[in-house]
What we know:
This protein is α/β, with parallel strands linked by helices. It is built from 7 helices and 12 strands. The chain has helices spanning 22-28, 64-76, 84-90, 102-107, 145-154, 171-180, 192-200; strands spanning 7-10, 38-46, 79-83, 115-120, 140-143, 159-162, 164-165, 168-169, 185-188, 206-212, 237-244, 247-253. It has a 10-stranded mixed sheet, with helices on both faces. A two-stranded antiparallel sheet has the order 7-8. Strand 11 and strand 12 (247-253) form a beta hairpin. The mean pLDDT is 93.
Amino acid sequence: MSTPDLFQLLPEHDRGQAPLTDPELAGLYAYPEAPQRFVRANMVATIDGAATGINGLSGGINNAADYRVFRVLRALAQVVVVGAQTARAEGYRNIAAPSEHAGLRAASGITKPLEFAIVTRSGIVPGHTLAHGDDVPAPIVLTTAAGRNRLLADHPHARCVVADRDGSVDLAEAISHLAALGLTRVLCEGGPSLLAQMIDQGLVDEVCLTTVGLLQPGAHPGITSHTGLTPSAHEATLGSLLVSDSTLIAKWLVP
């Protein structure tokens, strides 16, 4: 796969500029210095708002430009957080920082392997999702008290953190648990339901959104689709905008 060129549109776009290098991308997406915690979300959508392809997966709409930024974002994070439904559908397993970006990771001050956290109320997590290796830590399962019992019945050696509020996962407490483990640079990769809840609870500091040049009429989830939430609006400020052919990659800052 050839490496796609990315050009910065905002701020200070120069039509004669050279494509951004990976270190320059890492600088653009650097986490703030020493925050108590910083939660970044990374999602992809079509220009008409679909967060998944016709196959029901985000892999049905992402492309090489999105994948390039995706890998840089993982290199800069300490922990990737996903909902269990997304982990199952997208086949998450053996999550690790990209080996080719080891230098970027070291330059950002991260010395430990990338952690992987799964949010599940029920505690139902497929065994393959919990797989890990010598250089890949076992996933952390963020769940309820009932979910813990179910999880440990199926997987007695699973790493489990209980963050329970009335039978649902208390996301603020879950993020605090991760911070207590030294995992303050959080990268949330969805899905839409988890992201919607985290934004609704004021836990997301930044949304990175890739918009691909596709139109996909029909009923598809958006990046924050959640039938159980009362609709609300949250302002965001554009931090940067990249372009690669017909793909726009934006970084939105959430107050």
